Amino acid sequence: MMRNKRSLLIEQLDQKLKPFTRAKSVTVPERGWVNAIRTTLNMTLAQLGNKLNITRQGVSRIEKSEAKGTISLNTLKEVANAMDLKLVYALVPKNENIDQLIQDKADKLAKNIVSRTHQNMKLEDQAIQDEKINKTIQELAFEIKREVRKSIWD
Questions:
Q1: What's the predicted TM-score (pTM) here?
Q2: What is the DSSP letter of 94?
Q3: What domains sit in the chain, N to C, each tagged with a CATH number?
C-alpha cells in the first residue's frame, strides 16, 4: 500500500523532533537559562553587556524577561551568540510523538461522532451492539487520521 504525502510528512517531522525527546524532561532554571549559564561561566552582567553592546541593566532586563517568559527568540539568539552558544528551539508533543498526537485526536473525534450517532439511534430504538460501536469508532478514527481532518483540532 502506498503511503500518502501527509503520513510521510508526519514521519519526517517525528524524525526531526526525535533529538528533542529527552529535552521535554529538562526543567528551565527559575531565573532562566541566560542567568544560569552566565553565572556558571562566572561572567558579570557588565561583561555580557559589553558583548551585546548594552548596559549591565539591559542584561538584567533580558534575564528578568526570560524568567517571566516574555523574552523574544531574537533576543535569546543574540545572547546565545554573544556567549558562544547556539539557541535550540522546538515545539514537541507532550506525549509520544506527532503521529500519536494525531491518533489520540482522531480517536477522540471518532468516539464523539459515533457516540452522537449511536445516541440518536437509541432514541429511535435502533441501537447497535458495543462490539459494532467499537469497530465503527476504530474504522472512523483510521479514516480521520489518514486524512488528518482539520476537525480534529476543534
A1: 0.76
A2: S
A3: 1-22+93-154 (no CATH), 31-92 (1.10.260)
